[in-house]
Amino acid sequence: MAATIVNRRRGGRSRRTVVSRATKPVRHCETAVTETCLQLGSTLARKLLYIGGSCCPRPVPSPDAKADAVTDAPSPPPSTEAAGCPFHAGDEAAAHPPPHHLPDAGKTMVITGASRGIGHATVRRFSDAGWRIITCSRQPFNRQRCPWEEGPGDHVQVDLGDRRALQLAILDIKAKLRGGPLNALVNNAGISPKTESGKRMSSLVTPVDAWMNVLHVNFLAPMLLARGLFDELAAANGSVVNVTSIVGSRVHPFAGTAYATSKAALACLTREMAHDFAPHGIRVNAIAPGEIKTEILSPEAAARLEPTIPMRRIGTPEEVADVIYFLCSTSASYVTGTEIEINGGQHL
Ligand SMILES: NC(=O)c1ccc[n+]([C@@H]2O[C@H](COP(=O)([O-])OP(=O)(O)OC[C@H]3O[C@@H](n4cnc5c(N)ncnc54)[C@H](OP(=O)(O)O)[C@@H]3O)[C@@H](O)[C@H]2O)c1
C-alpha cells in the first residue's frame, strides 16, 4: 500500500511517521494557505487566517481507514513544511498529527451555512478535532475560502428556502453518509433581510414573501433536516445544535421582525425536539449569539452596539464555535433542551 511520510514533534523530539494512504491524501494545509495567500493577496489572506490557532481544517480519514496503519520510525530533522507558511513559522501546533490520533476521529457532522462567519469557524473547530464535515449552502464549494481537500466531495449545494430542494439535499447527505451514523447536525444557516435602505424590517413593512423565506430558511429547514436525518442521528446517539439569536427574546435596533420571530420559534422548536428526540438518544440544544463579528453585522452596527455590551466588545465566530463544539461533545452528554447565550452579557 502506498505510504506518505509526515514529520511530527513529540516532547521536543522529532519523529517520522509513516501514514498509510488508507487515509485520503491531503494537501498540507499550511502549504494550501501559503499558496492561497500568494494568489489572493492580503485581503482574502486575512479572511483565511483571521482565526487564531490552526488555520485549516484537518484531513479526515476515509471510512475504511485502518487505525493500525501507522508506524513510528526514527526521523530526520524537523519538517520545514509547517515553517513554509510565514504565519505559522515555529508554531508547534501547525504540525498536525495524523487524523486517527485526533480526539474525535471518525465522527461526522452536517452543518448548514458553512461558507463564512460562524459556520466557517465551526467547521474549522470540528475539523481540528478530527471530525468529517458535510457542509450545505447555496453557493458551490469555494476552494479559495476553504482550502481543504475533502470539501468539494462533502459539500451539498442547496437553497434551504426551497422545501423540495431540501428533500433532495437530505437524500444527498444520506448518500454521502453511506448508511453510517451522524454524530452532529448544526443548523447554522440564517438570513436576516433588511429594507432597501438597509434598515430594520419591522412588522409594518415586511413583505409576505420575505416572511415565508425567512421562516423556511431559519425555522422550517432545521426541523426538516433533523427529522430527515433522524435515523442517522439516533444510530450515533447524536446531537443537534440550532443557532438561534439574542433577538429571539428582545427587540433589536437592526434585526427585523421576521428574523426575530423565526429565532424565537427555533428556540421553542429546540425545546420540543429535545423532548421528542431524547428517548432515542439524541440531544437537541440551541446557542443564542449576541453581536458576533461576521458579514451579517455591519461595521456601523458593531460600533454602535459595542458600548452597550457589558463585556464592551463584539464576540468572535471562534467563541461561538467553541460552545457548539462543547454541546456536540461527550462533555455535554447530559445536556439537552437548553439554549446557551453567547453575548458578553448583552442579555443581562
Ligand atoms: N453574526 C451575528 O452577529 C449573529 C448573531 C446572532 C445569531 N446569528 C446567527 O448565526 C448564524 C450564522 O450567522 P453568520 O453571521 O455566520 O451568517 P453569515 O456570515 O451571513 O453566513 C450565513 C451562512 O448561511 C448560508 N445561507 C444563507 N442563506 C441560505 C440558504 N437559503 N440556503 C442555504 N444556505 C444559506 C450562507 O451560505 P451561502 O451564501 O453559500 O448560501 C452562509 O454560509 C445565523 O443563523 C444567524 O442568524 C448571527
TrEMBL record:
Keyword Oxidoreductase appears in the UniProt entry: yes
Region annotated Disordered, chain positions: 62-105
EC number: 1.1.1.100
Source domain of life: Bacteria
Signal peptide range: none
Keyword line: Oxidoreductase
An example Gene Ontology molecular-function term: 3-oxoacyl-[acyl-carrier-protein] reductase (NADPH) activity
UniProt cross-references to SUPFAM superfamilies, sorted A to Z: NAD(P)-binding Rossmann-fold domains
A Pfam family per the record: adh_short_C2
Membership in a protein family: Belongs to the short-chain dehydrogenases/reductases (SDR) family.
Official protein name in the record: 3-oxoacyl-[acyl-carrier-protein] reductase FabG
Gene, per the UniProt record: fabG_7
